[in-house]
Design brief:
The protein has helices at residues 142-159, 162-173, 185-207, 209-223, 232-243, and strands at residues 17-25, 35-36, 50-51, 61-65, 69-75, 93-111, 116-137, 177-181. With 246 residues, the protein is an alpha/beta fold. The radius of gyration is 22 Å and the shape is elongated.
């Protein structure tokens, strides 16, 4: 939350507004080529402002948890797919995990000056997504596939609570205020909106992506990146117990 000192007694705008943003948040794990998270962001609908009537009995926070998407690809080691994360020999597979979040913020706006505005968070629509891209080399032993599927199972374990976590975060933000600045009122409101979404992303990924990444790193340590004979289910349980979370 950002504040720039006491504001004059302006009235809140009588009509709530909505802004949307979609982000794809992935995190690189440089020491773990089998489970790669890359960092990127895609913004959709930024700058689009539209009126939305308030709903009398509607919950201020609405969360949609989409089911995970799993894409499995067997590749020729001599011609790996260009979109596949690079492998470090003798690795012959990788599980790329992508956590995604989109947020739509309903807010009331207060003009602070010609270049600054304050928004009051009135409602949130949050959608969570998870995608796995699992690559295994043609002819690789079944143990390799089991190891990559173990990375998937860890990601799914943490994603089970995505709706509850997102709802908790959202409810904490209802009624809070964020100040923004820009070339005009629309830009100032959008600046404040970005701060709301950034707070949602930060809190959600701290509860979702961070423990998942840590558990996956521990899983690789326990299994020596799939080379040890330990059963994957046992290694997953030990890794999750060591990290905790959710």
């Amino acid at each position: 939350m950002v504040g720039w000192g006491p504001a004059p007694a302006f009235q809140r705008a009588p009509q709530p507004h909505v802004l949307q943003r979609e982000t794809r948040l992935v995190t690189p794990l440089p020491l773990n080529r089998r489970w790669l998270l890359a960092a990127a962001a895609a913004i959709g609908g930024a700058g689009l402002l539209r009126a939305r009537p308030a709903a009398a009995q509607e919950s201020p926070v609405r969360v949609t948890r989409e089911e995970p998407i799993i894409v499995r690809t067997q590749f020729d080691p001599r011609r790996p797919p260009p979109e596949m994360p690079p492998l470090t020999p003798p690795e012959a597979g990788v599980c790329k995990t992508t956590f995604e979040l989109s947020a739509s913020v309903t807010y009331s706006a207060e003009r602070l000056s010609g270049l600054t505005a304050r928004i009051y968070v009135d409602g949130l629509d949050i959608v969570t997504r998870l995608r796995f891209d699992i690559y295994t080399a043609q002819g690789a032993p079944p143990k390799l596939s089991a190891h990559e599927e173990g990375h998937r199972a860890i990601g799914e374990h943490y994603y089970e609570d995505a709706a509850r976590i997102a709802d908790t975060i959202g409810r904490r933000l209802i009624g809070t205020t964020y100040d923004g600045s820009g070339a005009d009122q629309e830009a100032a409101q959008h600046d404040a909106f970005e701060k709301v979404v950034a707070e949602i992303e930060r809190a959600y990924m701290a509860r979702m992506r961070s423990p998942s990444a840590a558990a996956n790193e521990r899983f690789d340590e326990i299994t020596s990146h799939g080379l040890d004979a330990i059963d994957e289910a046992d290694a997953i349980a030990v890794a999750i117990a060591a990290v905790g979370g959710r």
